[in-house]
Amino acid sequence: MRSVRLAVLGYGNVGSALARAARAAGHDVTFADNPANPGAAAATVAGDPRLRGVAVAPTPDAIARADLVIVALPFGVVAEAIPPLAPALAGKAVIDATNPVGPGLTHALGGTSGAARMAAAAPGAGVVKAFNIYGAENLGGLPLAPGAPRPLMPYAGDDVPAKATAAEFIAGLGWEPMDAGPLSAALDLEHLALLWIRMVRMGGVDGHLVWSALRWAP
Predict the structure, then answer these.
(1) Exposed/middle/buried for 88, CB within 10 Å: 0-12, 13-18, 19+?
(2) Distance between CA atoms of 186 and 190, rounded to whole angstroms?
(3) What pTM does this model have?
(4) What residue ranges do the domains of the chain occupy?
(5) Mapping DSSP to helix (H, G, I), strand (E, B) and coil, where does residue 17 land?
(6) 19-29 pLDDT, tens digit each
């Protein structure tokens, strides 16, 4: 697995978990500092020893040097945050780890995916939907039992090179990458996230629930 330079937009539960996993896998990780809340990203790094080695940089600088960008912002701020970054994101592989969750754990956008909205806001970026179908407790590392199947991480997108970059990154973190199809399939992944949320957050299922793909032997 080659090391990538990763920029993470968002340093909440999901962004921090993915940053920890990426650092443990040997990647160069930078949090994009939020100009509306300066110093918060640095405080997050300083407050969590598991984030040792994660850098903090202004958002344009973090994106400019990145091979891969992960957007782990609350979906509600995406419409405001992404359009100004569109020139910087052009030509970049961008993983959309957000979920548009509406009232009563419904899909907030109806028949349009959040990933499609992100791709429209940054039309030059290679947007790939991934890392959205689980809670943060599953994203910081995978302590797998010997011989256990790797848990599934489906991804979807239209940009072939960006999907290849995402798949390699996913596999390097210990997941079983599965190509779910074009970016239109992101809507299905967002609904799968809602199922996980209902089962875990509302139904009392253990939060370490993950999906796996089993294939019949010929």
Answers:
(1) buried
(2) 6
(3) 0.96
(4) 5-202
(5) helix
(6) 999 999 999 99
